[in-house]
């Protein structure tokens, strides 16, 4: 039948024949024929091309796992599980480290806060920070110039005995303008001297009457201590002065004293 | 001519339709393609040697594909599917290479 092509392929066969007899086998391969077997060959090759392209595309699209075999997948899964376990262990170790570090940071933070708090408390004692709290104001006026340093020292001793925690002395003061004169923070080393030109020299600062003690401490206790017979009020009035005590729930002791480092003393551990 | 056109048509269909391979066929399709390629190379060689026969080609093509698929299926059932498919690919690859060598000798006389 191949030697007798059908009418539909006559022209093609004629063209083939016109090329001469060279390569008759190749010509036979390329000559269109319509037998059932040829159709089967064509279909098979079409299926082959189709399947090859589909396979290539699915390999490209799905990656290597989609075409992997079951046992390979199981092996890959096992490896992944092992690696997962290792990474999980690593994560827990790192989290432990992080917890240790952060709790260490917390301890440092707490120590810092505690140190700051102690520094503030010591600052109140040393007079380097302002102090605020309930207390009273004791104003000692001296119309006759008879209030000397020992009276003020006695008053301070009374206040200390009553448990006051922060004191400043200011003078002169007037009723309307309480903050006129210089103010001196009273600390452990505070000294009182009679000034030559009148008034009292407190830690080198000359104060003039009236003097005002601004005191932070338990107000009722301090007031009672000041008012006892033979106490501050009694002594001042005995010298023809006047002592006025005003309680206040919000006293601010804001006179400060510079911190002078000790020349000889060193902290001993 | 018609087989070549059919091959091109099949490739074009695969490119345009973008079908997905059914999961059941996924292990067999690559093996089947390699087996079919072996049959095609054998057919080209036979054509060049003048002993090509349509029916032989059709039968060898189909049987190649079926046998390769069966071997892989059997291997899967026995638990050695991976190794067997590798073996099938190796054997078919060797055949393809020898056919390609024969074709080369025929075409280039070298």
How would you briefly describe this protein structure?
The complex is a heterodimer of chains A (269) and B (110). Chain A has 269 residues and is α+β, with helices and mostly antiparallel strands.
Molecular structure report:
The complex is a heterodimer of chains A (269) and B (110). Chain A has 269 residues and is an alpha+beta fold. Chain A folds into three domains: 22-67; 69-126; 133-253, Protein of unknown function DUF881 (Alpha-Beta Plaits, 2-Layer Sandwich), CATH 3.30.70.1880. Helix content of chain A is 49%, strand content 17%. Chain A contains seven helices and eight strands; from the N terminus they run ααααβαββββββααβ. In chain A, a hairpin with a 2-residue loop joins strand 5 and strand 6 (205-207). The N and C termini of chain A lie far apart (119 Å). Residues 1-22 of chain A have low confidence and may be disordered. With 110 residues, chain B is mainly alpha-helical. Chain B has one domain. Helix content of chain B is 82%, strand content 0%. In chain B, helix 2 (29-49) runs parallel beside helix 4. Chain B starts with a helix and ends with a helix. The model of chain B has no long low-confidence stretch (mean pLDDT 87). Classes of the chains: A alpha+beta (269), B mainly alpha (110).
């Amino acid at each position: 039948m191949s030697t007798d092509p059908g009418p539909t392929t006559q022209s093609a066969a004629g063209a083939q024949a016109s090329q001469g007899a060279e390569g008759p086998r190749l010509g036979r391969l390329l000559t269109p024929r319509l037998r059932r077997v040829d159709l089967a060959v064509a279909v098979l090759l079409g299926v082959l091309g189709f399947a090859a392209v589909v396979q290539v595309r699915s390999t490209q699209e799905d990656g290597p796992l989609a075409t992997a075999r079951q046992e390979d997948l199981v092996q890959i899964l096992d490896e992944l599980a092992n690696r997962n376990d290792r990474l999980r262990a690593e994560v827990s170790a790192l989290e432990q480290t992080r917890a240790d570090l952060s709790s260490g940071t917390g301890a440092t933070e707490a120590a810092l806060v505690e140190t700051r708090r102690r520094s503030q408390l010591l600052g109140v004692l040393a007079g380097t920070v302002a102090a605020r709290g309930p207390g009273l104001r004791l104003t000692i006026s001296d119309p006759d110039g008879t209030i000397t340093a020992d009276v003020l020292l006695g008053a301070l001793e009374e206040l200390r005995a009553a448990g006051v925690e922060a004191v400043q002395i200011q003078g002169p003061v007037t009723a309307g303008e309480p903050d006129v004169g210089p103010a001196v923070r009273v600390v452990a080393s505070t000294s009182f001297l009679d000034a030559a030109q009148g008034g009292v020299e407190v830690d080198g600062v000359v104060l003039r009457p009236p003097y005002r003690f601004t005191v932070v401490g338990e107000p009722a206790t301090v007031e009672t201590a000041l008012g006892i017979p033979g106490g501050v009020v009694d002594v001042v009035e005995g010298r023809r002065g006047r002592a006025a005590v005003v309680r206040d729930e919000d006293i601010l002791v804001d006179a400060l004293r510079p911190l002078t480092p000790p020349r000889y003393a060193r902290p001993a551990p | 001519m018609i087989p070549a056109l059919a091959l091109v048509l099949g490739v074009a269909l695969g490119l345009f339709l973008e079908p997905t391979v059914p999961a059941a066929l996924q292990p067999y399709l690559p093996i089947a393609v390699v087996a079919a390629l072996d049959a095609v190379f054998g057919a080209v060689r036979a054509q060049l040697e003048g002993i090509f026969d349509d029916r032989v080609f059709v039968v060898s093509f189909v049987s190649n594909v079926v046998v390769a698929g069966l071997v892989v299926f059997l291997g899967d059932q026995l638990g050695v599917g991976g190794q067997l498919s590798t073996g099938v690919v190796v054997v078919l690859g060797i055949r393809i290479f020898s056919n390609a060598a024969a074709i080369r000798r025929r075409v280039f006389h070298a």
